[in-house]
Amino acid sequence: MKNRGFTLAEIMVTVGIIALLCAFAIPNFLRARCNSSETLALTSCQTIGKACQNFYAQINPHTYPANLAVLAGSTPSYIDAVLGGGQKQGYNFLYTFLDAERFQLQAQPITPGSTGNRFFFVDETGVLRVRMGAPAGPGDVPVE
Length: 144
Known about the structure:
The protein has three helices and six strands. The chain is of the alpha+beta class.
């Protein structure tokens, strides 16, 4: 009876093909993951901005929340607990209470270039702004 199996050459060709497929698939996967994180950050900024406006409308005397934890901890909550912690899917959300009539929110990728390339900004005006590669501010381009 003759032993059957794969030759070293067949195994090497198979490994080479798998490596070639991975070389094409992994960068596309990482790019899709980065795009997904950026989209979630953009949506989260809009959510927080609207939550701040709702909070402002409900509180007498009118004021914006002191921090994100207030939005997450109220009953019913304005945002989910994860977002209330200031971090979600590769982005940090930095909320700044300026005074009763003003706030600022910045969304920054935890690892720029890996978890995201775009930085976001929103304030009490509700206009979402974006900048590539550096923290966004009130003078940056609005998101369309």
